[in-house]
Structure formats: C-alpha cells, structure tokens
Amino acid sequence: MRYPVFLRENGTIGFVAPSFGCATEPYKSGFLNAQKRWEEQGFHLQLGPNCYVEVGVGISNTPEKCGEELTAYYCDKNNDCLISCGGGELMCEILDFVDFEKIRQADPKWYLGYSDNTNFTFLLATLCDVASVYGPCAAAFGMEPLHPSLNDAMMLLQGKKLTMQGYDKWERESLKDEEHPYAPYNLTETSVIKYYLPDGMTNVDINFTGRLLGGCMDCLVNFLGTKYDKVTEFTERYREDGIIWFLEACDLNLMGIRRAMWQMEHAGWFKHCKGFLIGRPRLGMGVEEFGIDSYQAVCEMLYHYQVPVLMDLDIGHLPPSMPLICGSMANVVSDGKTYRVEMELK
User: Fold this and answer.
1) Residue 266 buriedness (CB in 10 A; 0-12 / 13-18 / 19+)
2) The dihedral of CA 258, 238, 230, 248: what is its sign?
C-alpha cells in the first residue's frame, strides 16, 4: 500500500467535482466560507474547472470532463492533496474517463471525500494500491463552528492525528438550508454502539486488527461484475493482514442493504475479513421492513464469519462522520460503549 505525503504547512489544497459541485445553496456559501477558513490558516487553494458547474446529470459536468478534471488534478504537482466538492449520484459514469494507469504512475496524493466519492476512494486502494481518506466533502468545512469531526479530517490530512474516536451525539435532521448555509450539525441523538461478537469475545475486550476497506454500499455494489471489480485480487494480496470492512448506506432501504450484503458476500468480497464497522443507515435508523431491522439486514449475512461486527458507528450520511484511511492498517478497540480506530501507514 502506498501512502501520500501529508499536507504541509502553507501547502496547496486542490478541489475537484467528480460528483456534484458547489453550484447551489447551501453548498456554494458553505464552500466559500470553508475557503476563507483555509486561507486564514495559511493554505493555498487550487480550484478545478467543475467546482461551480451544474450542467451534468447527477454530477457537476459531463462524465468526460469530470474524469479529465479528476485525472489532471490528481496528477498535478501544483497541489498537495485533493478534497472533493461533494457527493452526488452518477460518479460511476466518469470512471471510463479516469486514467487509472496515469494515476497509478503518479506520486500518491491524499484524496478526501465520501458517499459518491466511493467511486474513487475505493478504487484508489483496489486498483492502484494507494490510500485515501473516506470523510467529509469540501462544503461541510464551512459550518460555524466546526464540529470536531471536521477538525479531525484536517488533522489527518496533515498527519497530526491517526487515531479516531466515536463522537457523543449525532444528527438525525439537518438544519442547514439555503437561508442557513453555515448551520452546524443538529446533534439531537445520543450515540449508542450495537455489536455482534464471535464466540469467546466479550464487550470489554473488543480488539481486532486488519486493513481498512469500504465506503458507501450504494456505490460498491455497482462495481460487482465490472472491470473495476478487483476486490478478490486485493483481499488475496493482503490476506495476511486481513480486511476490516467499513460500510454505510445512503439511499438503500433495509431490503436494499440486505441485497447489497448478499451480493458482496456471494462475490467473495468478505473472504479474509477480520471485522466490520457499519455506519448508521440514512433510511434505516429505528425502522423495520418485513419484520427485520437494520441490524438483521446486515448481521444475518455475517454471522458465519465469526468476526466482530460493530454497528451505528460515526461513518457516513448521518453525521458526524469520523475520517478513515481506506487502505491503511487499523486496530479497532471498544468496550462496547466507546470505540476508537487506530490507523497505521504500513
């Protein structure tokens, strides 16, 4: 696994929009406020041509132009890392226009984004053996005041913090809208971990190690059966480390999550798994469908692996979301009430 150089003091942050850009409110104002904050911190900024564009279908621009921007800015030596403007719907369509061979040959660079950005963060690891950061997109850094998870993401990009801990509260309903573009997270819910443990492990000694891999299930299942599905090769390459899967869902309902878990399981993706970190499902928290809840939707596909499964974690679409280095080695420690992810670049 190759790891990029961390963002240096007064370094240059590049911004791209391979999915949605920041052309509409509240994202445009949030992005502008974030730029002001970064400049005050001494960073230089380099904006890609699609950051404020809104002419694409489910993405900022045409698939060709989005793919070209992503390739060019990843390989550009004038920026030190990349932050995606936002998530979206059809980033998968740009993949045929991303030059992964050129990216593989380039010096590795940190890329930060989540949701639809799984189309790049996941493939950087499985196709290019390059680590990336699954975490907040650019506009989120415009909130006032910043939530600790946003500070954690910036500290990670700078190499100042590689151990992440769960947060106390989470947001069910956002207060951010066109009239309140800087609204902070509306933290009304108390974080509670749910977990399934294999035989012999108790909730006071949860401790497991493996290589982090994952992202948004809505995007991951699209890779199955395509030329971009090199997961089996990846898991075999790192079989001695084992894989810790981190997974979350955006638009999938409980049945969709269950189908996604079935697809990944039957494709052999979970071979050599050491554990699972599951984020809060955006459409599945506290609901049931056909007699099952979000825990049954996930765990009934995983029981036979006899590995720890921690659920309702700070990963994904119900913020805050801890930044995770996709591709890194990690040690997960939990007492059943709190948890931390200790990441190592090896």
Assistant:
1) exposed
2) positive
Per-residue confidence (pLDDT) for residue 289, from 0 to 100: 84
The residue behind tokens 């045929």 is 96
For residue 139, the one-letter residue type is: A
DSSP 230-281: -HHHHHHHTTTT-EEEEEE-SS--HHHHHHHHHHHHHTTTTTTEEEEEEEPP
CA Rg, the chain, in Å?
19
334: helix, strand or coil: strand
Q: What is the pLDDT of residues 6-30, one digit of tens each?
A: 999 999 999 999 999 999 999 999 9
CA distance 242 to 256: 26
Q: Which two tokens stand for residue 25?
A: 């409110």
Q: Which residues does the chain have with pLDDT short of 70?
A: none
pTM as predicted: 0.96
**139-162 per-position pLDDT tens digit:** 999 999 999 999 999 999 999 999
Q: Residue 169 in contact with residue 189, Cβ under 8 Å?
A: yes
Closest Cα to residue 170, out of 155, 184, 153? 184
